[in-house]
Known about the structure:
By secondary structure, this protein is mainly alpha-helical. The chain has helices spanning 4-23, 26-36, 45-58, 62-81, 85-98, 106-117, 124-145, 168-186, 191-204, 210-215, 219-238, 240-251, 257-269, 274-282, 285-292, 298-310, 319-326, 334-363. It is built from 18 helices and no strands. Helix 2 runs parallel beside helix 4, helix 4 (62-81) packs antiparallel against helix 5 (85-98) and helix 13 packs parallel to helix 16. The two termini are 27 Å apart.
Amino acid sequence: MSGAWQLLVTLPGVTLLFGCAQANGSLAGAAGQAVRLCRGRAPRLPPLFFLLAAATAMVGPGAILSTALIAPLAMSTGARAGVPVFLTALMVGNGANAGNLSPFSTVGVIVSGLMTRSGLPGHELRVWLFHAAAHVAVAVVAYFLFGGLSLARQPSAAPPEPAPRLERRHVATLAITGVWIAGVVLGRWPLGWSAMALAGVLLAARAADWKTTLRRIPWKVIGLVTGISTVAGWVEQAGGLAWFQDLLARLATPATVHAVVAFLMGVISAYSSTSGVVLPAFLPLAPGLAARLPGVDPLALAISVNIGAALVDVSPLSTLGALCIAAAPPGSDRARLFRQLLWWGLAMSAAGAAFCYVASPLFTMGA
């Protein structure tokens, strides 16, 4: 089993396991307990929101589900502590994206499969590291630009609202999830089948409701990614990818290709699905384009595609930005937040190009 059909096992299996954790409240309970540790200390909250969203996305659900889970909690807690809603939105969105290409997440599985089909297998941790580094970099800039330092001069806010209590089923779910991650990393368990088996254990033990869990599986995304991957294969056989590779090779030089590719991916991703359209359509271009430009490494170019496509996702035209706006607490100026996220998202096309231009020599160091 290979290619697009592999995704038909891996994606449902991974999302089924983490659908259990989301459906029974395990992820929400763990996030709430983490927020309580800050005890209303405002300067700690933005980094905590980033880490919570990253950790949640990293272990399976991916950026969209993680933002849907963390944004309401972060927006309400941040507002009570005096954290600007724009800063909170940037921390949650970039944090979720920082964990999004983990080998255990839904999108990480997609990217791993696409890169394997493109002749670039076995680089999951490297791709995730540099992808996360780009989001950490822009989050740090956002913290200093949009009020992070001024929070230190504010008095401590009221303690956060009580977090959901972790019950026995939540502890069991989190423990089984940890066993699965350890098995994948240390025992090389197959991602999809092992996740499906452990999800079956949780459902059989009634730790989660099976109807609610099944509704968490993004069947439309699975169908879209599989379909786009199949169509991309047909386009490649017809010579379409070779034509686009030639076009990019004429527009860029070996010195500028990483910036050009990251910028184009950002512009395209701003109005289309990153994981469903942009990555399946454009990641297969990396090896052929690299072959046309002397000295360009295809792995480094693939990393630039991933970074450029993802940095713009906090825009309100994307699902992540829209979820943050929807989660803004009562009294917030949502129209202003929309404009702020829109300008930030558009600026990230240039930021992604700059990051890849500077950091691309590091992408393959030691590979």
